[in-house]
User: Which sequence fits this backbone?
């Protein structure tokens, strides 16, 4: 009982701290944890699929379609979900000014695992270890970011991943760099993909020939080359590799 009381005090302290320090922050619940609790009463693969369909829906139209479909299967399950607060974990209800569609607590759990060893220490030592780890992490991520900016050469239209070089279409690294410089993405697509290049490909033509009835007639016999017919029925399909998909 004493441990539960301490946990309750800790949770209340965290909620109050967030309210004071981040008054305008949007609070969301983890859809995976809500599903775990909801699934105890409403099981089945069909309900699971419908749950994640409307939880991940970006607009109300798709959301309503999935909700209607679930109501046909189990209306009680829908009522139970509505009581959880759709605005807290449904993508179609979250605020648009956050530039974030995350409805899972994966990032928090990743960070929790990141500080797992530090959590076993004394409070002061734990905070010091976390502070030191974050200092190193920020420095390392900044250094990695600076290195990644150098992998793209916009002027020469090349990238170390080689996708841009091979395809002539900007890779994800090049796209990030082009947008960062506020330039037009279409300007960095190879000329072979332009309308003009497409038309040049088909600008040639094959002139028609006169019909067979107008060909000149000759007296000589023109026999076809000799054909050697092998035994058995003629093969129509090519011989496939042993490792090739038979279909």
Assistant:
């Amino acid at each position: 009982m004493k441990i539960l009381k301490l946990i309750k005090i800790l949770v209340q302290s965290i909620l109050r701290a967030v309210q004071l320090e981040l008054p305008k922050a949007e609070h969301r619940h983890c859809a995976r944890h809500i599903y775990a609790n909801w699934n105890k009463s409403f099981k089945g693969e069909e309900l699971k699929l419908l749950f994640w369909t409307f939880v991940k829906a970006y607009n109300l139209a798709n959301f309503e379609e999935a909700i209607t479909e679930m109501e046909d299967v189990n209306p009680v399950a829908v009522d139970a979900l509505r009581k959880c607060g759709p605005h807290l974990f449904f993508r179609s209800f979250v605020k648009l000014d956050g530039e974030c569609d995350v409805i899972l607590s994966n990032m928090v759990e990743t960070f929790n695992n990141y500080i797992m060893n530090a959590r076993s220490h004394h409070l002061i030592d734990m905070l010091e270890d976390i502070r030191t780890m974050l200092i190193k992490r920020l420095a390392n991520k900044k250094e990695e970011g600076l290195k990644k900016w150098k992998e793209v050469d916009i002027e020469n239209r090349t990238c170390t991943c080689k996708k841009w070089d091979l395809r002539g279409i900007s890779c994800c690294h090049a796209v990030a760099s082009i947008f960062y410089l506020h330039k037009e993405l279409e300007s960095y697509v190879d000329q072979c993909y332009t309308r003009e290049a497409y038309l040049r490909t088909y600008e040639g033509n094959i002139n028609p020939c006169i019909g067979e009835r107008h060909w000149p007639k000759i007296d000589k016999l023109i026999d076809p080359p000799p054909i050697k017919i092998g035994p058995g029925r003629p093969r129509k399909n090519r011989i496939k590799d042993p490792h090739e998909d038979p279909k």
Notes: DSSP finds eleven helices and two strands in the chain. The first strand starts at residue 152 and ends at 153. The longest helix spans residues 123-149. The CA atoms of residues 65 and 236 lie 50 Å apart.
